[in-house]
Every structure is written in structure tokens, then in C-alpha cells.
Design brief:
This protein is of the alpha+beta class. It has 2 domains: 157 residues, 2-Layer Sandwich (Beta-Lactamase), CATH 3.30.450.40; 148 residues, Beta-Lactamase. Helices cover 45% and strands 21% of the residues. It is built from 11 helices and 10 strands. The strands form 2 sheets. A 5-stranded antiparallel beta sheet has the order 2-1-5-4-3. Strands 7-6-10-9-8 form a 5-stranded antiparallel beta sheet. The longest helix has 46 residues. The protein is elongated and about 75 Å long. The N and C termini lie far apart (85 Å).
Length: 337
Amino acid sequence: MVLNRDKSFLQLLLHVTKAVTSSLDPNEVFDLIVREVPQVVGVDAATLRLLDSSGKKLALRAASGLSESYLKRGPVDAEQSVLQAIAGTAIAVYDAATDPLIHYHEAARDEGIKSILVAPVRIRGRVEGILRLLTKTHRVFDPEEKEFVTALAEQCGIAIENARAYQAQRLQIGYLKTLTEIGRVIRSTFELDAVLNLIVRRLPEVMDLKACTIRLIESSDGRLQLKAAYGLSEGYLRRGALDEELATHYILQGEPVVIPDATVDLHTIYHKEAAAEGVASILAVPITVQDQPIGMMRLLTKEVRFFSEAEINFAMTVAEQAGIAVVNAVSHGKRTS
């Protein structure tokens, strides 16, 4: 066994725990995990995959010691080793080039991967990912080593949970600051364009979006007209009307709509245009005044994303502020006319 027996497993566990809890940035924690764990376990490479926001697919979050071609070989969700790890059991594979528990045997041979240990990563008591340790020499992982790596993965899960909690707190602070800023502008001006342009620029910053648009229903013809946009090309903005989209129907009934993949979703109609623009997911929320829909706000991302409840609630709150801005602008226009 390659583990340094001069140090106890406990000392190594404390070393990794100290390292991965040294940061509260989730991405830094991911990178620390795949760098630190291989060093103490004596393996050549590591990958960390976590369930995506849909809770159904594993997404690669960090890797060390592996080529890009190997990392892009394909999804591993259906591998038996992964399924067993997701079920909560650490699984060791002696020969990755032939073992039926592993897919992509040719890729393993090309990469020189011999043995693999897959351990579950638990976050808040639930398995939400896997840690894979890979060697370039054949190796038998004994029960004690499996237990040790499982404990390491548990500590990694705690570090990830802490980092996510800190990030969520920072996001909430950012949301509050944004709402305060928008509210201040609403109180200081009756210029609707100023408020709407502020919203479409600030939301991509605070929510890590590609773009944001606001459309309002024109009183003359009852159709949606673009009033503010940020992060999109003129060609995409001019692709056509959105009034006939199924998503628009639900939005104008007062319901938010999440579109995970704008290139194929039946709620949208401009699939080719979305693909060409690099639009992956869309969150669309209604803008209402006294419970009557007067428009919609769309939040667009570069990568497929399943918006959280907190994100949807924040977007709905901002849309309410947009509605207030519309009322203020109309009221001011009546008073000055």
C-alpha cells in the first residue's frame, strides 16, 4: 500500500480537513480537494463530481492529474461504480480497462488509468456527489483504506456545505443591496427607462447571468414590446415577437417559468436563435400591477441552470419593483399632462 504508514490516518484526515476548510469559496474548495486528497492517499489523479441543480446529473466540478480528452470522454452517471457510490458505498476497481463496473475502457487504457476508488460525498446527510481517486499502477484498496477515503469524502462534504452556506449568505446580501439600489432609484426619478436599464444591468452581475430583458404590454395593441435589454446581440433581440410562446402564456397568467434548455424547450419557439446566441437557460417572471400582468422580465444564462427557489423569489421581487416604476411613471405623466 502506498499510504505513508509513519503517519496515522487521523493525522492525514486532520491535514486534509484543515486544507479544504481554509477557504469559503466553493470553487477553491473543489480544487483543494482534488489536489490534497491524492497527495495523502498516494494516487495519481482525482475528480470531484456533484449533482447539478436538477439533482439528477453529476457535473464535473474539479479534477487533477488527468487530460482534457479523458475528462470529456462522456457522462459517468450510469456506471455501476458511480451508482453504488451514490447509494452510499465506496467502490474499488482493480482494472479500469476491463472491469464492467467502469465504462470507457479504451479511454482508461489511453490515459494509463489502472485502478479507481469511488467514494460518496455527503452534504447535509445526503449523497450529493462522488470523489474518484485514480492510479496509473494497479492497486488493491483494502477495507481500511476504503474507510479512510470515505471519511475524507465526508470531510470534503462538510467543507463544501460550509462554503455553499457562506456563498448563499453573500448572495443574499447582494440581493438586498440590489433591491435597495433599485428602490432608491425608483424614489428619486420618474424616468422609467432609467429604472428598467438599471435592473437589466444589475441582475446579470448579482445573479451571474448572461443577460436580462424587460418587455411591457403596449396599451395600443396589447402586445409585448422590448423596453430594456443587456447582454444580447441586436440580431437576437430582433428575432421576432414572444407573444405566441407558450412560456409567455403562463407568465401572463402570473406564473414564473423556468426553461432549463432554451434550444429545445417546448415553451419557447426560437431554438436555433438561442443556440446561436449561446443562451442555455431562461427564467421568465411576470411584471404585475395590482395582480394584473403588464409585462415580463427574462433572465438568461450561458450554461444550463435550474434556478433555485431563492433566485426565483428574488427575480419576482425585482419584477414587482419594475411594476412600481411603471405605475410611478404613468402617474407622473398624468399629473404633468
